[in-house]
Amino acid sequence: MRLTKKILSFGIGAVLSSFCVTNAEAAKVGISMPNDHLQLRWFSSDSVYLKDELEKLGHEVVITYAGDNDILTQTRQVENLVDTCDFLVIVPIDSKSLNYSLDKAYKKKIHVISYDRMLRDTKSVSYYVGTDSKQIGSTMAKYVVDKLRLMDRNQPANIEIFAGDINDENTIDIDYGVNSVLRPFFEIGKLNILSHESALKQNQTVKWSKQYARERMQRLAKEQGYAPKGKKLDAVIAFNDATARGVIDSLRKLGYKEGYYPVITGQDCNRLSVSLIENDVQSMSIFKDERKMAIETARIIDTLSKKKMVTVNHPEGINNGFKNVPSQLIDVVVVTKDNVKPVLYDSGYITEENAE
Ligand code: BGC
Fold first, then answer.
1. Does 208 sit in the ligand 1 pocket, CB within 6 Å?
2. pTM for the full model?
3. What is the CA radius of gyration of the chain?
4. CB-CB contact of 55 with 63 (8 Å)
């Protein structure tokens, strides 16, 4: 069952393809995913939905996972996919490190779809399917501004930021969105980062790793004295659910209890994090429906394989440093305890079988 709320909008723009495929109908699609972690989205959601949608349309699918976000492994895997496939769907670990293989794909007239993460500084990308990460950042920050009542409170609030991996273009964009909303509050002293770790080089989470976030939170708590009865930590902007879970693990060890955690953001509506939201531990998560992303990606590939005209809702595209990449953007939903049921359960995103 699909979401009751209409979260996709289709524009009328059309982008005509100048590429061709050797086998016009059934194509071989190579999908390159950044990691193979069971509990993270790429392995358990995106690759499953993509395979399903593409196979339903009669295409053959080959999926590679780059171990633990290993850039060299992904480079080798993409090189191999370029040699053997008609289309590529890539979630880059490092938005710039695949450009050699991508040039090869371009010469072979293979269409590349940049999926969820933008491939930077390359001409070899035909479409982007994903979300607007700047908007995700500003949405997280607005949520915090609202929850902490920053507009009318007199006491300054304390916040710490747990960004994503700095090599991921989404991290740069989320950071931009967060700061565009929070900067005025920092400037007038209503919001403080006591650690002063406000630059991405300081607050990034290498490989988006939960463990990395856990250790950093542990260190910050020690250095700043954050504790249930110590210095108050009012909010944590965590760029995704895995980093939020790392932060939560550390805070729990310090004695934080359900209902008394700081405001904590997240992204992905990971099953484990949804139960933390239901239990008043994590405050919210940004939901990007991977089912919609898979359907849109499969539609674009299928249309190209039939040499027909592709329509996307942002034909003017998103600039990747080299060109404007025509984009199909998926709307996002803020999930809190109040709307978990309609958005995630009633839509069939979380079912009894996949709840664990
Ligand atoms: C994605 C997030 C994901 C993160 C870690 C980001 O690029 O947008 O949804 O949680 O990577 O895999």
1. yes
2. 0.92
3. 21
4. no
